[in-house]
Amino acid sequence: MMRLEDELRNSLRREEPPEGFAERVLAETAKAAPSVWRRLFALPILRWAMAGAVCLMLAVAGIEYKQAQQEQAHGEAAKAQLMRALHITALKLQLAQEKVRNLEASEKY
Amino acid sequence: MANTTAMEMTAVGLSDFADLMRANQSMVFSIAYHFLHDRAVAEEVAQDVFLQLYRKRSSLESDSHAMAWLRKVTCHRCIDYARRRRQTVALDDIPEPESEPAPGDPLMAHRLRRMIASLPPKARAVVVLRYQEDLEPEEIAGVLGWRVNTVKSQLHRSLKMLRQKFDRTSGERLS
């Protein structure tokens, strides 16, 4: 038994891999290595910070949009009011003009 | 590198991975080579194992953990590979070894390697881990995820098979 075991140990000694093995594996790992951005965002704190920043940006953009919409509605309302006021003024002027014309006509006769 | 943990290695990156690989490459390659008896296939398997180590490196706690992981993954890869290729190979189909003969009786070493390569995959794994890596049956059980008694009986059967094969082919009796 001992002789067979000794022979097995002798036959199964460790061997070095072919030349350039380590370099080939390292070249493969370099291909598989994640990019700087992926490595950066692999950190949980940065992922949370990024998610927070995106949420904040969306909230700010939403508020800005709502404010712009409100301003536009106010502008439209003011424009409508102005148009109505001008219309009323024009009517009043027309009435005044008619009265003046009537007075001038009665003075002639 | 001796006391550098894999976590530190992750922080440092590729250069420490290279150290870890160089420290273990002969172990991984030899397990694959003695198991598969083909240098090209053994190199391919060893390369796959190290690429898997590179991807998993952040989950490994120490060099000894990485070494145990490498042994385990290499053995399982070889068993899977042998099963896929249905390597219940006849002795005459096993290629001649391409490596330098071991010191001692080179003919005996050559013959034994071919015989080991003709064993069933699980028996091969036990023999390689016992006589290449010098592991005790308890450690082999840990690597392969088997019970210690299973490893012991597998080892006993493997040695018996090897002895019978050797006696059949040479006429010489091994003690």
Describe the protein in words.
- The complex is a heterodimer of chains A (109) and B (175).
- By secondary structure, chain A is mainly α.
- Chain A has helices spanning 2-11, 21-32, 36-40, 44-108.
- The termini of chain A are far apart.
- Chain B is mainly α and 175 residues long.
- Chain B is 71% helix and 0% strand.
- Chain B is built from eight helices and no strands.
- In chain B, helix 2 (14-36) packs parallel to helix 4 (63-84) and helix 3 (39-56) packs across helix 4.
- At the A-B interface, helix 1 and helix 2 of A face helix 2, helix 3, helix 5, helix 6 and helix 8 of B.
Quick structural gist:
The complex is a heterodimer of chains A (109) and B (175). Helix content of chain A is 84%, strand content 0%. Chain A has 4 helices and no strands.
SSE blueprint:
The complex is a heterodimer of chains A (109) and B (175).
Chain A: H1 2-11, H2 21-32, H3 36-40, H4 44-108
Chain B: H1 6-12, H2 14-36, H3 39-56, H4 63-84, H5 106-117, H6 121-131, H7 137-144, H8 148-170
Helix pairs in contact in B: 1-2, 2-3, 2-4, 3-4, 6-8, 7-8
Q: What structural keywords apply?
A:
heterodimer; A: 109 residues; mainly alpha; 4 helices; B: 175 residues; 8 helices; globular
- Classify the helix fraction of chain B into a percent range: over 70%
Number of strands of chain B: 0
As a percent range, the share of strand residues of chain B is: under 5%
Q: Overall mean pLDDT score of chain A?
A: 89
Instruction: Using the alpha-carbon principal axes, give the shape of chain A.
Output: rod-shaped
Uncertain segments of chain B of ≥5 residues (pLDDT<50)?
A: 1-12
Structural class of chain B: mainly alpha
Principal-axis shape of chain B = globular
